[in-house]
Write a structure and sequence with these properties.
270 residues, alpha/beta, Rossmann fold, 2 domains, seven-stranded parallel β-sheet, 11 helices
Length: 270
């Protein structure tokens, strides 16, 4: 009788342990999902704010970089006070790299999206060394060096998604007044071999060439004939912001499990 009672007690204890381990596993998975953090450069752009909303909706914590326009980001933050962190930083300043690295150091970044689109409206014959270097610094060099800072953490975690947003203009040599911008985006499309090899650690890196989207960016480009530009697109319309943000979320989240080291176009057939 005593042995049967002891056996029953042991069985109950084992079941409790298994139940506890199951609960801990569920909690661990929930926390893992909850604590995933995405860093988005250029978060105040039209595409940036829509992308931020998608990540927040899916339970991510978002660090959003902005150069100047924080109005929409602050509006979003009112609904997500704990999960949206805004960093204002002007990448024209040489010390901006060290400043932003210090600000993001404490975060465990799982996904990184570079949406910066600095346009200076200079043509090839009007540009100069300083202006070209400035465009490359903002659109390409600083984003690449920021990426370098958290690769080891991604490798240790066996998870990382990196996405740089390029322009379909790179394919055609850029527009008349976007030489510096297109040149900088072209340099961004270079994926170093050591970054490509990190796919074995589940760190997937891609470039997304974006076509002409219905955003405020076109107002910044001097003498741009949008109607004429639309005629060159096989689909014959501008892309919707949500069409681009949906693709960004897919490539830069756990949804993407097998695409890496690619230059992907979403440009209406161009």
């Amino acid at each position: 009788m005593y042995k049967e009672h002891l056996w029953e007690k042991r069985t109950q204890l084992i079941l409790k342990i298994y139940d506890l381990e199951f609960v801990n596993l569920k909690v661990s998975k929930m926390l893992e999902k909850k604590n995933k953090t995405v860093l988005i450069l250029g978060g105040s752009s039209d595409i940036g704010t829509e992308t931020i909303k998608k990540f927040l909706f899916n339970g991510w914590r978002v660090i959003a970089h902005s150069n100047s326009n924080e109005k929409e980001l602050k509006r979003i933050k009112k609904n997500h006070p704990n999960n949206l962190i805004i960093i204002k930083m002007n990448f024209k300043k040489r010390n901006s790299l060290n400043l932003i690295l210090r600000k993001i150091k404490k975060f465990d970044i799982s996904s990184y999206i570079n949406l910066i689109g600095y346009v200076d409206n200079l043509s090839f014959d009007k540009t100069n060394l300083n202006e070209l270097i400035c465009s490359i610094q903002i659109n390409s060099l600083i984003p690449i060096l920021i990426q370098k800072s958290f690769l080891k953490k991604m490798e240790k975690r066996k998870f990382g998604r990196i996405l740089h947003i390029s322009s379909i203009g790179v394919k055609f040599g850029g527009g008349k007044n976007t030489f510096n911008y297109s040149f900088a985006k072209n340099s961004l499309e270079f994926i170093p071999s050591n970054i490509k090899k990190m796919a074995k650690f589940n760190i997937l890196t891609n470039i997304l060439r974006v076509g002409v989207v219905k955003t405020k960016l076109h107002k910044k480009i001097k003498n741009k004939n949008l109607n004429q530009r639309i005629k060159l697109i096989p689909i014959k319309r501008l892309a919707k912001i949500t069409e681009i943000s949906d693709m960004i979320y897919f490539l830069a989240s756990e949804k993407n499990s097998y695409i890496s080291n690619e230059i992907i176009s979403i440009a209406g057939g161009e």
